[in-house]
């Protein structure tokens, strides 16, 4: 079953499309990339895998996207809106809360994970640095999540490829930042990892 609702945030209304699992044992909230939407192929595959693993999945559209703008809001605004969505959607869901998203959405989830009370973070195509600018690393965001992290990354991602680390698992797929290949591997990687989070 799928249901959409708007959520008031300090940065305007966000939209959450909730995909319900048959017997939910947790909640996964996923954000979109900077210029994309929640219909990105990797988000669709991750949603299907998560509901099969027993997680309700909320696909979150940031206020700037709901308002019809393509240019992303500043990081602080994104984080503020995200936390308001978490606070609105979390009640009524038992089990672990997992946050995540693709690209920019993954960065938001990492920056706010501990404040949100998340048990883990799912990063799809984490943008480790701007293309061709490895010196401008965003590794501190990833390393600062404070909870276990799964990163699903394309081997030839021009935004860089994070390494495994403490509490961080990296699943590499063929392809680039779009994560449009090997969804037969992406789905199981997400589903099996989520299953380890259920008590």
UniProtKB/TrEMBL annotation:
Keyword entries, A-Z: Hydrolase
InterPro entries: AB_hydrolase_fold, KANL3/Tex30_Abhydrolase, NSL3/Tex30
Keyword Hydrolase: yes
MF terms in GO: hydrolase activity
Stored Pfam families: Abhydrolase_11 (PF20408)
Domain KANL3/Tex30 alpha/beta hydrolase-like: 26-164
Key word Lyase present: no
Domain of life: Bacteria
Name assigned to this protein: Alpha/beta family hydrolase
């Amino acid at each position: 079953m799928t249901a959409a609702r708007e959520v008031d945030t300090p940065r305007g209304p966000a939209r959450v499309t909730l995909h319900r699992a048959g017997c939910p044992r947790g909640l996964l909230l996923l954000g979109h990339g900077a210029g994309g939407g929640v219909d990105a192929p990797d988000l669709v595959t991750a949603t299907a895998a998560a509901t099969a693993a027993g997680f309700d999945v909320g696909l979150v559209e940031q206020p700037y996207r709901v308002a019809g703008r393509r240019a992303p809001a500043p990081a602080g605004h994104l984080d503020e809106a995200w936390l308001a969505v978490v606070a609105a959607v979390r009640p009524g869901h038992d089990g672990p809360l997992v946050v995540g998203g693709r690209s920019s959405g993954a960065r938001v989830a990492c920056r706010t994970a501990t404040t949100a009370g998340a048990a883990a973070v799912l990063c799809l195509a984490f943008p480790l640095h701007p293309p061709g600018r490895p010196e401008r690393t965003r590794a501190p965001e990833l390393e600062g999540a404070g909870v276990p992290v799964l990163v699903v990354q394309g081997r030839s991602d021009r935004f860089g490829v994070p390494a495994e680390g403490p509490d961080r698992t990296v699943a590499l797929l063929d392809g680039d930042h779009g994560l449009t290949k090997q969804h037969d591997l992406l789905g199981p990687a997400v589903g099996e990892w989520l299953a380890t989070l259920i008590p």
